[in-house]
Amino acid sequence: MKNLLKVLAVFLITAGASTFVKAADTEASTQDIRQACKYNSTAKVNPDFKTLNCLLTETALAYDVPPEIVKAVAEGESKDWRQFDTNGNAIVTGDNGIGIMQITNQSQYNEQQLKDDIVYNIQAGVETLDKMFKRTDLPTINNKERDVLENWYFAIMAYNGTKPVNSPIVQATGQPNSNAYQEKIKRLINEFELIKLADLPFKKEDFSYDSNSTNNIEFVTKNYSFNLPFTKSKYAFKVGQKVTATTAVNIRTSPSTDSAAKGKTSTGEVLTITGPFQYENKKNHFVWYPVKRSDGTTGYVASSYLKYRFTDIPAKHYAEDEIDYLVDRGILKGVGNDKFGVGQGLTRWQAVVLLTRANHVSLDNRPDPGFKDVPQNHPYYKEIAAAVDVNLFNGVSDTEFKPDKTLTRAEMAVVLQRLYQFPATTMKIPFTDVKENWYKDEVARLYASGITDGVTKSTFGPGNTVTREQFAVFLVRSMDKSYRLTR
């Protein structure tokens, strides 16, 4: 760590808490990590890059912290991931930052062990990042999912200190602060992990501070909701899982940038993971996955260029782009077991969750809608209460919401119109099954705006169930059309 301010931040968040790993558990977990990385050396020398990559990655995964974050922080704190100098002494900076993660000694850590044991030092750094992510006084981003790299923005900032120097915005100019610690870490992720994180559109009004003061930044905005393509960690792909190549990339004969290429993927090509990731003895942060192409060709692809894919979405599926769009923004999730749920009817509670997420509807302090089938312990009570409160959804009666009932195309049209307010139209719609119904105007507006077609040229199918993939298409079209209409 680069300064004492960070130490104080860690002390304040951990003092009096019992959330640190107990000594016995710490020893057991460090032994597991040593074994996984085949690291048994007691010599005070820096391990090779392959071993260091493994130590950093395995420790990060043990704490459910994205390895991309941990490795970039280690790079920022100690160039080339160095724990020891050429004389075998632990590197200690002027502000008493120790070793690879630059941990300044605190009572819960053994100072000599921080100096002598690189695994212990890494673990202390990862614990600190984990604590920073769990802080309740820092702003949250979207749903604060741990595997989304952009969601760690403020935790990374706090690792170095929430002082004016690390403000995301330069108060005097209103411009992004490229010198902030967390921005430097983002650039290291781009350089060594080959992943470009989304630029977060903060505003000057989000932060308050005095540049001449040593006081912490005041976070005016507590929760951020961004419709941006965020990045999930690349370290959770399982054997047999389908992934997508994010660009045209070489398939290597072995897990190394020096190995021969045996073909090149196309952008969007579907690959199958055939084994656990592997490390390269080079100064790379990424890892290599063994993969198989549809023609049976096998090889290795860098993790940077692989993206999660649902196993039940076939290649070139008509809704593939829309599903990807919603998944990247944390709006849409699967039904479990790496499946999206193609062909499944969308339930009313699922529609509520999608729409409240897509439009950042606040779930706080909503009145109880009073539905007997949506008690307060219902897993999506808050979303349903919020949707009803803003008149996005109604119950099927005053006392029932029927959350598990599937949504019809007529209901879909009404809900999307309530939310996105498409303009009135005099266009004659061609649907013989949409006459003077309660949903006629909504269907006409969506049809004229290009959001929906009929199930045939002359029928809309108002009573038909909307499938999950159909709703993904309707929702993305609505979001895009609404955006263009309001510009």
UniProtKB/TrEMBL annotation:
SUPFAM superfamilies, per the entry: Lysozyme-like (SSF53955)
Source taxon at top rank: Bacteria
Residue span, SH3b domain: 238-310
Keywords: Signal
Residues spanning the signal sequence: 1-23
Keyword Chaperone: no
Keyword Signal: yes
Stored InterPro entries: Cell_Envelope_Struct_Comp (IPR051465), Lysozyme-like_dom_sf (IPR023346), SH3-like_bac-type (IPR003646), SLH_dom (IPR001119), Transglycosylase_SLT_dom_1 (IPR008258)
Domain SLH, chain residue ranges per copy: 306-366, 367-430, 431-487
Protein name per its UniProtKB record: Lytic transglycosylase
Species in which this protein is naturally found: Anoxybacillus andreesenii
